[in-house]
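Sequence in, structure out. Go.
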Amino acid sequence: MSAKNTLETLAKALLSGDVKVVDLTAPLGPDTPLIKLPPEIGKNTPKIEVHTISNYDKDGPFWAWNWFKLGEHSGTHFDAPVHWITGKDHPNNTTDTIPVSNFVAPVCVIDCSAEVAKNPDFLLTADGVKAWEKNHGAIPKGAWVLMRSGWSKRNGSEAEFLNADNTGPHSPGPTVDCINYIIERGAIGWGVETVGTDAGQAGGMDPPFPAHNLMHKANRYGLASLVNLDQLPATGAVLIAAPLKFVRGTGSPLRVLALVPNS
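Output:
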């Protein structure tokens, strides 16, 4: 089948509903949970603010619009390689220079929700990924790998979403060998339902925060605060994750969509 026919077939499937579009994006606003860093590590992202410019009034009688203030890594967001010190020297490592072809890719979804329900500190290992591959096939080069955890169900409450106590945050994520393995497989990015791409206790790993440290060192990408991963099949969907074209951006809130066969 030619590329033209492939696109025509996809367009017809979208119109007929044979392929559905799934929104993987959490609502973004002043109540969006944001990561909280301990002061000894660094500053935090400011709370999101939305301000009215006009609302069909004396400041603009026929239109309504707002201005907002938010951090690059707020809500459902994209991590570019320049976000981490290990990725700062790559070419085309910012949101405005990454090749746009990298924003559309196949997606593999690894379901860890049962394990996370029993243990909020659950860690996905390389062996866990290999077990998934035995059932679903090898992770294809250039694919996104998403960890489905069910954590997005907590997103309505910042306290439950961050899940922190006096020992720090407790949330699921990958081990060092997990990230090394998906990089070896050629994954273009790693995505999660939690506030950041690493586990809550990942600061104690070696190296610390491997999803950031190793993925960006390899010039790969991250997605955080995803939702609706339970609506995606393990394989066979296509992910569209295009950050805003911020000049020299380290990341960006974005609308993440998936094209999914409607079986």
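Check: The longest strand covers residues 60-69. The chain is about 20% helix and 25% strand.
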